[in-house]
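Exercise 7.
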Amino acid sequence: MDECPPAAWTAMRFFELLPKLGRLRVINVCGPSVFEAICEAAPFDLQGGSINLITPDYHWHFAHARFGFLQSHDTVHQRSGRRVLFFTLHENQGDAPFLRIYVYRAPNEEFDPAVVDVFQAVHAELGAGVRVEASA
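Solution. The predicted structure, written as tokens, is:
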């Protein structure tokens, strides 16, 4: 029996994954500014070259064509000593990440085991990093 190769990673596929991870900590670094938000991903659509994810709390317009490399990380936070699960999004492999998206958990709590299972399943594909294919 032939196995099908895994589906390519696209911005659309990544954004479809995010709601399965529950609350997220999104960290955006822009020059000397770091913006951090705790949020949940919501339904989105593709318009005019952007993924548009709009909720009552925030609007996220994501230029998906500039998202060229994705990597997942399962590591220990240096300062707290706690396990962290997150993704880094890059324009190109070798570039500094423009966005970090962490699986959120409240202080002094552990990750939801179901969320860890979802993360671990994609981490098997993304741990070494992958090129992000153009979204349709």
